[in-house]
Amino acid sequence: xxRFTRLALILWxxxxxxxxxxxxxxxxxxxxxxxxxxxxxxxxxxxxxxPSLSIGVTFDISLAPEKWIVALWSHQRAEFTAxxxxxxxxxxxxxxxxxxxxxxxxxxVNKKNQPFVMVSAGLTWVRSQQDGFGDALGLSGMIGAGTKxxxxxxxxLRFEGRGFLTFTDVSLSGVCGGIGCTVRFSSGGIFQxxxxxxxxxxx
Length: 203
Description:
Blueprint: H1 2-19, E1 26-36, E2 39-42, E3 46-48, E4 52-64, E5 67-81, E6 91-105, E7 113-128, E8 135-150, E9 155-166, E10 170-176, E11 179-186, E12 190-202
Antiparallel strand pairs: 1-4, 1-12, 2-3, 2-11, 4-5, 5-6, 6-7, 7-8, 8-9, 9-12, 10-11
């Protein structure tokens, strides 16, 4: 599964560019932000994921003056406390990635300040940094809103907030403290909020 997901991430950008019409405007935005929320269940306890930095990339492709399609990837290295994970250290790390596609409505595209709303759906990919654990995929959706500030015809600043909801359980099984245990990232759905910004390049 790791090889498949890594291949999907590598092919995501050229696939987006390949399907975009020749006349369409394409915007590329590297992003940096902070992600909040999420809880984790283990065989020993429940804990809240600590807020941490997120990085990602966003592609927007114009279909009409106010309508765009979006493809995005967002990554977080999350930490929490899991009793029983190790006899000496209860810290636990998860890499949480969202790989999504959806739509954007952006009125006032000819103005300097361009607010927008967006929705998307895709995959939540969770994997552990703890030895002995694998990875897992889940289905998720996202709603977001923000604004693009135009600095020049080719460069702008993007600020937005996103809410991710993972619909399906994502469980990782491995060895905690020398015995088998389960770490469940999502139980009946999990919500995370992300505040981010980035520099947008148009071409």
